Amino acid sequence: MDGERRPALGPPAQSLLADGHLVLWTLCSVLLPVFITFWCSLQRSRRQLHRRDIFRKSKHGWRDTDLFSQPTYCCVCAQHILQGAFCDCCGLRVNEGCLKKADKRFQCKEIMLKSDTRAPDAMPHHWIRGNVPLCSYCVVCKQQCGTKPKLCDYRCIWCQKTVHDECMKNSLKNEKCDFGEFKNLIIPPGYITSINQMRKNKKTDYEVLASKFGKQWTPLIILANSRSGTNMGEGLLGEFKILLNPVQVFDVTKTPPVKALQLCTLLPCHSARVLVCGGDGTVGWVLDAVDEMKIKGQEKYIPQVAVLPLGTGNDLSNTLGWGTGYAGEIPVAQVLRNVMEADGIKLDRWKVQVTNKGYYNLRKPKEFTMNNYFSIGPDALMALNFHAHREKAPSLFSSRILNKAVYLFYGTKDCLVQECKDLNKKVELELDGERVELPNLEGIIVLNIGYWGGGCRLWEGMGDETYPLARHDDGLLEVVGVYGSFHCAQIQVKLANPFRIGQAHTVRLILKCSMMPMQVDGEPWAQGPCTVTITHKTHASMLYFSGEQTDDDISSASDQEDVKEAEYSDEDVQT
């Protein structure tokens, strides 16, 4: 029956076949993107593992970036690249595929010389080609460098000098590097090599070695908190490593200040300076480490401390002239210039001892070190609520503006609830041993510095009432009271003055009943009945920069001048 035709498929069979094709194409359209995505993620993870392996074995400080901030060319293949890797020590920039070649071909910054045959201050230039900084000029012809759309021109990674390709000469390649503008802040690699040799020979006369650099040599140590405030610390670490010797730059989250400051003992006496990049809490951490140096008998190596404010409040930084907050508005090179121009001053540090009532005095009193202020009441309550929520989700509190908005929210809430009312009935206050009668307050603030609450000059106030400027080096504390959260807000916008209680060398506060919020320098806690005693502890050597003057500083200074003029005129009338 070969000639017989097979019967055609009926409608049900055709429908089934069409459904099968539809199912097949649907599966393909769903599974194919899934497969492609899985394959791409697998390749990406392999590349990441490969990069991490190179980063781990490399002497360069490689970091990934998805987009370079300026036109960039690979130092190996000279091709224009949008993403890749860069070294945060020497500034090399390469494509991902050229990473291994660049690691073998180019040498990174040497934190110390391989041989000690050269003098500690003698070192040739270390030139790297391409990707020179914008608005840089050739040291030979004085014309702008980096203007061509290709890999061109050279930069020395130590002195930061730039030179055109056609201006580069053999004499310039072998020329001695003078470390450029920041030579008085840089610890030369030759110095580290000589120090190691002297320690092997059991010699510690570092003054003779340092005399070659002159009396103006004040090496700078960078202590940055990569987690502070706006999370700018990590980027700043790389920028400082490019301008200085990487051995001078530390991340305090990886190397505690106690260990990092031991570098000061390898430098001449009273020559080192420290720049703390972080909030007031990070500054307090560093100053505690400085106090430990005093305990170890290392007073002659104690550095002077400057501040680059990355926190939320930054009241100590503001008091010392370094501003209310750093957001990259000035280049890092200018920050280093400001440190070189800063003057040394003293900062009072106070011991806060909290002794709980009851328990037959078996519990050891809690001790804190205060640099800024101590408070009990609504501002401590706001700090306590803020701190509790930041501990739960720290990633949500990386913006300085958002942090202040959260403070505003809790302040508004306390205006309605008034959790700290009738404080005058719960506490007793003594200034230099004399008891003080308190009005109906909700909070008491004990100040060591001029600023409070993120930039408010609390003691001087505003209006016709003139008070002497609060000082941070006179051994005196200023004590004020507030009537509530709304009163705090009025003070910050200059619509009201605090209730000034007085000045004292010693402050004693007795909490008789109930739990109350307290804080020391922004570190809050809930406290039961206790006795709080504040006494002078020590002085810290700080750096004051007079170039950052706020409107409050100018107005306060003018008020002081008006007061002095009035006093002089009164004396003239009397005479």
UniProtKB/TrEMBL annotation:
<dbReference type="InterPro" id="IPR001206">
    <property type="entry name" value="Diacylglycerol_kinase_cat_dom"/>
</dbReference>
<keyword id="KW-1133">Transmembrane helix</keyword>
<keyword id="KW-0808">Transferase</keyword>
<keyword id="KW-0418">Kinase</keyword>
<dbReference type="GO" id="GO:0046474">
    <property type="term" value="P:glycerophospholipid biosynthetic process"/>
</dbReference>
<comment type="similarity">
    <text>Belongs to the eukaryotic diacylglycerol kinase family.</text>
</comment>
<dbReference type="GO" id="GO:0007200">
    <property type="term" value="P:phospholipase C-activating G protein-coupled receptor signaling pathway"/>
</dbReference>
<dbReference type="Pfam" id="PF00781">
    <property type="entry name" value="DAGK_cat"/>
</dbReference>
<dbReference type="GO" id="GO:0004143">
    <property type="term" value="F:ATP-dependent diacylglycerol kinase activity"/>
</dbReference>
<keyword id="KW-0963">Cytoplasm</keyword>
<dbReference type="Pfam" id="PF00130">
    <property type="entry name" value="C1_1"/>
</dbReference>
<feature type="domain" description="Phorbol-ester/DAG-type">
    <location>
        <begin position="59"/>
        <end position="108"/>
    </location>
</feature>
<keyword id="KW-0812">Transmembrane</keyword>
<comment type="pathway">
    <text>Glycerolipid metabolism.</text>
</comment>
<feature type="transmembrane region" description="Helical">
    <location>
        <begin position="22"/>
        <end position="42"/>
    </location>
</feature>
<keyword id="KW-0472">Membrane</keyword>
<feature type="domain" description="Phorbol-ester/DAG-type">
    <location>
        <begin position="124"/>
        <end position="177"/>
    </location>
</feature>
<feature type="domain" description="DAGKc">
    <location>
        <begin position="215"/>
        <end position="356"/>
    </location>
</feature>
<keyword id="KW-0067">ATP-binding</keyword>
<keyword id="KW-0862">Zinc</keyword>
<dbReference type="GO" id="GO:0016020">
    <property type="term" value="C:membrane"/>
</dbReference>
<keyword id="KW-0547">Nucleotide-binding</keyword>
<dbReference type="GO" id="GO:0005524">
    <property type="term" value="F:ATP binding"/>
</dbReference>
<dbReference type="InterPro" id="IPR046349">
    <property type="entry name" value="C1-like_sf"/>
</dbReference>
<dbReference type="InterPro" id="IPR037607">
    <property type="entry name" value="DGK"/>
</dbReference>
<keyword id="KW-0677">Repeat</keyword>
<dbReference type="GO" id="GO:0005737">
    <property type="term" value="C:cytoplasm"/>
</dbReference>
<feature type="compositionally biased region" description="Acidic residues">
    <location>
        <begin position="550"/>
        <end position="560"/>
    </location>
</feature>
<comment type="pathway">
    <text>Lipid metabolism; glycerolipid metabolism.</text>
</comment>
<dbReference type="GO" id="GO:0008270">
    <property type="term" value="F:zinc ion binding"/>
</dbReference>
<keyword id="KW-0443">Lipid metabolism</keyword>
<dbReference type="InterPro" id="IPR000756">
    <property type="entry name" value="Diacylglycerol_kin_accessory"/>
</dbReference>
<dbReference type="InterPro" id="IPR002219">
    <property type="entry name" value="PKC_DAG/PE"/>
</dbReference>
<dbReference type="InterPro" id="IPR016064">
    <property type="entry name" value="NAD/diacylglycerol_kinase_sf"/>
</dbReference>
<comment type="function">
    <text>Membrane-bound diacylglycerol kinase that converts diacylglycerol/DAG into phosphatidic acid/phosphatidate/PA and regulates the respective levels of these two bioactive lipids. Thereby, acts as a central switch between the signaling pathways activated by these second messengers with different cellular targets and opposite effects in numerous biological processes. Also plays an important role in the biosynthesis of complex lipids.</text>
</comment>
<keyword id="KW-0863">Zinc-finger</keyword>
<feature type="region of interest" description="Disordered">
    <location>
        <begin position="550"/>
        <end position="575"/>
    </location>
</feature>
<protein>
    <recommendedName>
        <fullName>Diacylglycerol kinase</fullName>
        <ecNumber>2.7.1.107</ecNumber>
    </recommendedName>
</protein>
<dbReference type="Pfam" id="PF00609">
    <property type="entry name" value="DAGK_acc"/>
</dbReference>
<keyword id="KW-0479">Metal-binding</keyword>
<dbReference type="InterPro" id="IPR017438">
    <property type="entry name" value="ATP-NAD_kinase_N"/>
</dbReference>
